[in-house]
Amino acid sequence: MSDWLPLSSAERSVAIEVLVNGPLSRTELARRLNLSQGSLTRLTKPLIESGLLVEASWTGAPAETRQGRPSQPLDVVAESRCFLGFKVTDETVYGVVTTLRSDVVARLDRPLASHDPEQVADLLAAMAAELAVRHPAVAGIGIGVGGFVREHAVVGESPYLRWRDVPLADLVRRRTGLPVVVENDVAALVEAETWFGAGRGLDRFVVLTIGAGIGYGLVLGGRRVPYAEEDRGFGRHWIIDPQGPLTPDGERGSAVSLLTIPSIRYQIRAATGRDASYEEILARAAEGEPMAARVIGEAGRALGTLLAHIANFVMPQKVLLAGEGVGLMEVAGDVVRDTVRGHRHPLAAPVHLETKVSDFHDWARGAAVLAIQVLVLGGGGAGG
Questions:
Q1: Start-end ranges of CATH 3.30.420.40 in the chain?
Q2: Ranges for all domains in the chain classified under CATH 1.10.10.10
Q3: pLDDT at 322 over 50
Q4: What pLDDT score was predicted for residue 71?
Q5: To the nearest whole number, what is the mean pLDDT of the chain?
Q6: Which CATH number does the domain 201-355 belong to among 3.30.420.40, 2.60.120.10, 3.40.50.2300, 3.30.420.10?
Q7: What are the residues whose beta carbons fall under 8 Å from the beta carbon of 62, sequence distance 6 or more?
């Protein structure tokens, strides 16, 4: 990894453009970055020498002619390096191996028996070692945690793990000898979707996740907007219906009280005296069971209201709805869309909503993308 760093800001721009959009001809790359051919040659030379970029064959395409001789397009060798991504929940660690372009090539999950930081770091190191046996060219590790993370290294606060000021990156780096970057899990997911997913190439893009909590990520100018309150309770104080349900987590009628899986399950349990899984509640609502249909209908209206508010203020080109709670759209999708339209100007453009049924491996992939960014951008990461 060290032979790829450090990169100047101009070199980073070239590397990222090829990584995300390649293979690209030199002419196209120069056009995208508003560079002269001479400047592009100067910037790409060290990237090619380090092995980050290669001159690739372009099957079926005519070779570009430059200064009287053919020129090969520039690309990265996606399989030249592997990256490990981990998503840590309160019960399980989900792991993936990705290529340089974030394609998942392996998965590994292990139960989390303890929240003690040293034992969690032991488990992460053991999983990294097991994955590295089959994928030895590991260049870095990314770890996503539900909580507030400082400087890509320290978990300042994680309510799910009951952590405060845990130097997780350093703990794992000392056990593995690899560069490690830690980030809030929603932020990592947003980065992955911005570079390689639904937000690729977009100037204004929003990710909204629903599941155990509500997550929000905003991309402006093609870059994620960081903010100090990240994972400090988005939605807990966003009041959708002041007369809405009061649940153990979130203010009365807040987005959290109406939309999250624990709150929906709590409402059903309080009304019926019986526990039910989220999937069972959705199925009952689809069958027309009155209580389940009422709770899921309210959740659908809450989601539609939240999406309309976001669209009205941010004006995104696309909103990606992700997380383990997006099954709501299968049952209450019409309610969601009707509510969005009802809270928008009649002449407003339709909200481009994309729904992604995701599991925790998608969150782990997001963490791997953070490791890729540390490598290519040359920032963050303990030991990087």
A1: 79-191+361-377, 201-355
A2: 2-76
A3: yes
A4: 65
A5: 88
A6: 3.30.420.40
A7: none
Model pTM score = 0.85
Taking CA atoms, 4 is separated from 50, 65, 201, 292, 335, in Å, by 6, 29, 25, 55, 50
Task: Provide the 10 A C-beta neighbour count for residue 164.
Answer: 12
How many Å apart are CA 180 and CA 274, to the nearest integer? 44
Q: What pLDDT, on a 0 to 100 scale, did the predictor assign at position 5?
A: 56
Identify whether the C-beta of residue 181 lies closer than 8 Å to the C-beta of residue 152: yes
pLDDT at 384: 44
Q: What are phi and psi of 69, to 5 degrees?
A: -140, 155
Q: List residues bridging with 164 in a β-sheet.
A: 157
Q: What is the pLDDT of residues 222-277, one digit of tens each?
A: 889 987 666 566 777 889 999 989 888 878 999 999 999 999 999 999 999 999 99
Q: What is the mean pLDDT of residues 285-313?
A: 96
Q: Topology of domain 79-191+361-377, per CATH? A: Nucleotidyltransferase; domain 5 (3.30.420)
Lowest mean pLDDT across 73-82, 125-134, 209-218, 345-354: 73-82
CB 107 within 8 A of CB 90: no
Cα distances from 344 to residues 303, 307, 339, 347, in angstroms, run: 14, 10, 9, 8
Radius of gyration of the chain (CA): 23
Confirm if 313 and 199 have CB atoms less than 8 A apart: no
User: Helices 261-272 and 278-286: crossing angle, nearest 10°?
Assistant: 70
Amino acid letter, 346: P
Please give the CATH topology (third level) of the domain spanning 2-76: Arc Repressor Mutant, subunit A (1.10.10)
- Closest by alpha carbon to 314, among 226, 205, 209? 205
pLDDT bucket at 4, cuts 50 / 70 / 90: low
